[in-house]
Amino acid sequence: ELIHFQGNSETGTEDPLCPVLSPKLSGPDFSIHKWIGEKGSEVLKKPEQFAADLNIKSGGVWHPEECQAQYESVIIVPYRNRYEQLEIFLQYIHPFLQRQQLHYRIVVVEQMDDRPFNRGRLLNIGFKEALNLGSPNICFIFHDVDLLPQNDYNIYACTHQPRHMYSSVDIFRYHLPYRSLAGGSFSILVNHFEEINGFSNSFDGWGGEDDDFSFRLHRKGLEFCRFDPQVANYVMLPHKKEVPSPDRFGKLASKKEEDPSKDGLSTLEYKLLKIEYKPLYTHLFVR
Ligand code: BGN
C-alpha cells in the first residue's frame, strides 16, 4: 500500500486531491526500446524546450495543476560522466512521473573528483541536501541513471515497507539474480533511511554498497518489498561493464561485523561545490 501525503504547500488548498491511482497511467510502454542504443539521442529535445512544453519548474520540479498530489517524492541520481544516458533518463522519466500525478523533484549528485565512484556516499549526500530543499515528509527514491521503468503502474511513491523498485530487468532476462538484491532503484521513507544510518560511505568503486544496504535494513527488521514483476519491469541502457572493485567481498564481510552507526549518514563528509537549478534537474556538484 502506498503512503499518501495530504497535499502540499505549493498547490492551493482548494484543489481537490488527485485520485489514488492516476487516470493518466498507460501501462507498459512497448516503444521503450526506441530510447536505447544509437537512435536514443534522436528522440531527444532541447532541455529548455522540453521543460517549457511539460511545464517543469527550474530544478526539475513538477506537480499536477488540476489536483493536489497525494504523493511527494525526490528522485536521487548518483552520477559521473554519463551525459548521454542522463539526457535519455530525464526525458523518459519526466513524462512517466507526470502521468503518475506526483509532486516530485529530480536531484543529480555528481562526483567531481577522480577517486573511484562511490554510489553509497553520493546517495547519502543527495539525501541530506534534498532534505534542505523541501518538505521533510517526502519519499526518497535512489535511482541509477541507466534504468528505465517500463510500466507507469510502478508508482514512484513510498510504500509502508521500503521497496526495491525492480522485480525484472531485461539484462537479467527479466528475472532477479538474487533475492536480497537492493540495487538500481529503491524507495524508502526518510525515517527508515535515518534508522539504518543510510548507506555505508566505504564502498569505493563498483559493487557491494547495495548488498550492505540490504543487510542494514535486514538487521533492523526492515524487510523490503517488491511489486509484481509484470508491473516492476525495467530496461537498462547499454554501457560498458564497469570493472568491479576487487575488495568488495572483504568490505562487505567486515561491514557485517561492524555497527552501522559507525559508518553512514552520521559520519558523512563531503564538500558541496555548488548547486545549479537546471531545467530538468537540481544538479549538486560534490567532492
Ligand atoms: C552484485 C553486486 C551488486 C550489484 C549486483 C547486480 C557485489 C558484492 C559482492 C557479492 N554485489 O554482485 O553491487 O548491484 O551484483 O549487478 O559485487
From TrEMBL:
Q: So which cofactors does this thing need?
A: Mn(2+)
**Membrane topology value:** Single-pass type II membrane protein
Question: Which GO terms are recorded in the biological process aspect for this UniProt protein?
Answer: carbohydrate metabolic process; glycosphingolipid biosynthetic process
UniProtKB keywords: Glycoprotein, Glycosyltransferase, Manganese, Membrane, Metal-binding, Signal-anchor, Transferase, Transmembrane, Transmembrane helix
Asked if the Swiss-Prot or TrEMBL record annotates the protein with the keyword Hydrolase, the reply is: no
The record places domain Galactosyltransferase C-terminal at: 163-240
The EC number(s) attached to this protein equal 2.4.1.-
Residue span(s) of domain Galactosyltransferase N-terminal: 52-159
Record-level GO cellular component terms: Golgi apparatus; membrane
Recorded GO molecular functions are: galactosyltransferase activity; metal ion binding; N-acetyl-beta-glucosaminyl-derivative 4-beta-N-acetylgalactosaminyltransferase activity
Q: State its role.
A: Catalyzes the transfer of galactose onto proteins or lipids.
Q: Which family does it belong to?
A: Belongs to the glycosyltransferase 7 family.
What protein am I looking at? Beta-1,4-N-acetylgalactosaminyltransferase
What species is given as this protein's source?
Answer: Armadillidium nasatum
